[in-house]
């Protein structure tokens, strides 16, 4: 029997759990009037749409992400730092696709020598970022996604691409 859905109701279509032994993070794709990725750790959680996830994928300097989040969880995340050092990353599982009329982001589980993480890839921009459980838990604690608007000072992404030119 097919499931029935109420128009406008939010439903989770995919769910993943990652743990580093101390912290567990749940990632869920939510579909309602658009698609969102929910990142939850304990009682905290944030819902990010494709544009906010794309802005996250542009970030190359992990300390700038930490400045935005108000801590040092990302720059000290062993998974994120290993990935930034061209560490060996094994992609696992099925991709989660989060899309809007303006953006498309692929989210995929990864395994690094330093533990599990998630890779955010924006295929049209060619940008990607890997975050581990420690970083994802810090991201889940964001109370107001407006803080991410700083990433859109340059509305088409980082300026060090062939399309936009050097910084």
Give a structural overview.
The protein has helices at 50-57, 62-69, 78-84, 133-140; strands at 11-19, 24-32, 34-41, 44-48, 90-99, 104-112, 115-122, 127-132. The protein is of the alpha+beta class and 167 residues long. It has one domain. Strands 1-2-3-4 form a 4-stranded antiparallel β-sheet. Strands 5-6-7-8 form a 4-stranded antiparallel β-sheet. A hairpin with a 2-residue loop joins strand 6 (104-112) and strand 7 (115-122). The longest helix has 8 residues, at 50-57. The radius of gyration is 16 Å and the shape is globular.
Going across the major beta sheet, what is the strand order?
1-2-3-4
Described by strand count, sense and barrel closure, the largest sheet is: 4 strands, antiparallel
Which structural category do the helix and sheet elements fall into?
alpha+beta
Helix content: 10-25%
